[in-house]
Write a structure and sequence with these properties.
single chain; about 260 residues; 2 strands
Length: about 260
């Protein structure tokens, strides 16, 4: 059943991609109801397939390709709801093929990790953490795109990639929506960790917890600055990447501690 759902999602994604490409010359800026309907159907099928990929009779499967399918689903959900209000639907041109590829890889490649049986509360914490870090990674990539777009506009360049981008204001609005989503998920990750782990500040987790909290503060400052000071452009990019670097240091630091310092 999972393979059928994933294959159906792939087919709808590819159909929607082909349809959007065919519509570019006719309606370069306006989304169509057919595109929105196809996106909604593909995302629903993608969600059902991803649930089946992650949860099986052996437990929770956290293999890399299964997680990639989950990450692409999150990106599509955020962009779908944003595209209902802002002209950012052209970004689906990049996401639809990537989503189809991630699902194809997930259903055709054997799992690289054994499924684990853990309490449902810990499962929820793990999945929320993965979603939080993935969403904030998306925000970091979005910030890079904004920096590139801003540079192109300042130098009055209009290459093919630039012409497919939404307006800069819409790109920045999408960035902050992604940051908001990531900050909420990161908050839930920290709260669930405090609630469900008896040893959340254990030495083996301390690096990740501390840097996650530092990242939470950075993103909180960014959202405060946006709301009260109108931060945008390079300021927003710097704060987004400051938070993401803290996330990376948490993961790298925990790996170094576990593999070299605490042996």
């Amino acid at each position: 059943m999972t393979s059928f759902l994933a294959s159906s999602a792939i087919a709808v994604y590819l159909f929607a991609f082909g349809y959007q490409v065919s519509q570019l010359r006719k309606h370069p800026t306006a989304p169509t109801s057919a595109l929105q309907l196809a996106a909604a159907l593909a995302i629903a099928l993608h969600a059902a397939a991803t649930f089946g990929l992650l949860f099986n009779t052996a437990g929770l499967d956290l293999s890399l390709l299964k997680i990639c399918a989950l990450i692409s689903l999150v990106i599509n959900v955020v962009l779908f709801f944003s595209a209902l209000k802002k002209p950012v639907h052209s970004l689906f041109l990049f996401l639809f093929p990537i989503s189809a590829l991630s699902l194809f890889a997930a259903i055709t490649t054997p799992s690289t990790k054994a499924a684990v049986v853990i309490p449902p509360a810990i499962e929820a914490h793990v999945l929320i953490s993965i979603l939080a870090y993935s969403t904030l990674a998306i925000a970091a990539l979005q910030a890079l795109l904004i920096g590139y777009q801003n540079w192109q506009l300042k130098h009055k360049h209009q290459n093919l990639l630039m012409r497919t981008f939404p307006p800069l204001q819409s790109m920045e609005a999408l960035l902050f929506e992604v940051v908001w989503a990531g900050e909420i998920l990161l908050t839930l990750s920290l709260i669930s960790g405090f609630l469900f782990y008896d040893d959340f500040f254990d030495q083996q987790l301390l690096h990740k917890v501390v840097f996650s909290m530092v990242a939470w503060v950075f993103y909180g400052c960014l959202l405060w600055g946006r709301h009260f000071q109108g931060w945008r452009g390079n300021t927003a990019i710097r704060w987004t990447w400051a938070g993401f670097i803290a996330i990376l240091l948490g993961y790298i630091g925990s790996k170094v501690a576990l593999e070299f310092l605490l042996v």
